[in-house]
């Protein structure tokens, strides 16, 4: 893994890494995502390095370059927490780019179950959900939230993973037309980055203006309409 460009508790650095390094990290992250799906669908023995590389559109040699071996790659993606582990070192400026690469590495194939669906369909569903909750709580609620400046860091960290997992499910498994369209890839990444940046920004949790707006909206809520107390705007 590349050395972190800043420490784990610092804020944004104002710029991302050089383009070449970003490209390498993006490829590495996409390979992790593709590997997680293939290992989940076919198991270790049924998955080849060439297949994983093919999902991302790169040469198999890059898998060995970034991870050393198929076994090492399997260990890296054997749990959700390990897949997200690099987020503890990625500069906060580059987190949106990292998530974009992760989602881009997911195969657009209904035969590859999304990790969330895999958990929900597990024969030991309650145990699987509990394990996923523990992994995500440790990774995001505790460790990643510690990197975020400003209030409500834990809420913002959980919203981040919830939004990304939901987006991934809609785009890769459910394949809604706008999100799954290759033509919309650039637009998709722009909005993804914008949303992630909002949650990561130390100003994201400054809710004073939003609270004022919410109070004004409450006066025209459906409940108010039903009892006739809402004012016409």
Walk me through the structure.
By secondary structure, this protein is an all-alpha fold. The chain is 62% helix and 0% strand. The chain contains 13 helices and no strands. The longest helix has 24 residues, at 19-42. The radius of gyration is 20 Å and the shape is globular. It starts with 18 loop residues before the first helix and ends in a 7-residue tail after the last helix.
Condensed summary:
It is built from 13 helices and no strands. With 233 residues, it is mostly helical.
Which helices and strands, and how do they pair?
Layout: H1 19-42, H2 49-56, H3 61-67, H4 70-76, H5 80-84, H6 95-104, H7 115-120, H8 125-144, H9 153-174, H10 177-180, H11 185-200, H12 208-218, H13 222-226
Tally of extended strands? 0
Give the proportion of residues in helices.
55-70%
What best-fitting shape do the alpha-carbon axes yield? Answer: globular
Relative strand content: under 5%
What would you call the structural class?
A: mainly alpha
**Computed Rg:** 20 Å
Number of helices: 13
SSE ordering: HHHHHHHHHHHHH
The CA-CA distance between the termini, in Å, is: 56 Å
Largest pleated sheet: none
């Amino acid at each position: 893994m590349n050395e972190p460009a800043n420490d784990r508790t610092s804020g944004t650095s104002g710029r991302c890494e050089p383009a070449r390094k970003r490209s390498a990290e993006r490829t590495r992250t996409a390979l992790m995502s593709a590997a997680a799906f293939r290992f989940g669908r076919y198991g270790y023995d049924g998955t080849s390095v060439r297949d994983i590389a093919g999902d991302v559109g790169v040469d198999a040699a890059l898998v060995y370059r970034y991870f050393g071996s198929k076994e090492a790659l399997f260990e890296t993606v054997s749990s959700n927490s390990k897949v997200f582990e690099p987020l503890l070192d990625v500069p906060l400026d580059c987190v949106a780019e990292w998530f974009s690469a992760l989602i881009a590495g997911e195969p657009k194939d209904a035969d590859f179950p999304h990790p969330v669906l895999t958990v929900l369909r597990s024969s030991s569903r309650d145990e699987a959900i509990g394990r996923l909750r523990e992994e995500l709580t440790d990774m995001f609620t505790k460790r990643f939230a510690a990197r975020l400046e400003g209030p409500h860091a834990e809420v913002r960290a959980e919203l981040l993973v919830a939004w990304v997992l939901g987006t991934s499910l809609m785009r890769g498994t459910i394949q809604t037309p706008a999100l799954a369209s290759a033509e919309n890839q650039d637009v998709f990444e722009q909005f993804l980055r914008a949303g992630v940046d909002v949650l990561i920004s130390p100003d994201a949790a400054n809710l004073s203006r939003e609270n004022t707006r919410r109070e004004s909206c409450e006066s025209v809520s459906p409940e108010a309409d039903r009892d006739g107390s809402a004012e016409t705007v």
